[in-house]
Write a structure and sequence with these properties.
mainly alpha, elongated
Length: 155
Amino acid sequence: MIVIIGALIVAASVAGGFIMGGGRLGALVQLSEFVVICGAALGSLIIMSPRKVLIDLVKNALYTLKGTPYSRTAYTELFRVLYEIFSLGRRNGMIALEDHVANPEASSIFAKYPGFVRNEHAVELLCGGLRPIIDGKVKPEQLKLLLETELQTIE
């Protein structure tokens, strides 16, 4: 939705500026100009881009029209998962999280939140961040640096 609003603002700005400059709006709407400009731009894009880039471009362009998959309920579910995981770790020690982190598909905590479990990247980031702490390889103070590095790798 935001992409459509942005496109409308761009079109209105171009048309408004052209009219303010003394131009006739009809002069902007020329089918032959549209064909030349868009055809040249599309042809240049195809010439310079590898096939994978073109496929990703089309997929991501369609993805922008769908909107974000993250809603208020998705964030609420994430915070509930984190609360339960951290509460269990605080009550019973970090070793109590080992079964949940090692096998999130069979976890009783994760089973309560199917929306979170469907997001494989989020589950992997959470479990991957907790594994070194449970194993004792990383101190909790070092977790921030570890997760920031992981996010940079994902980006």
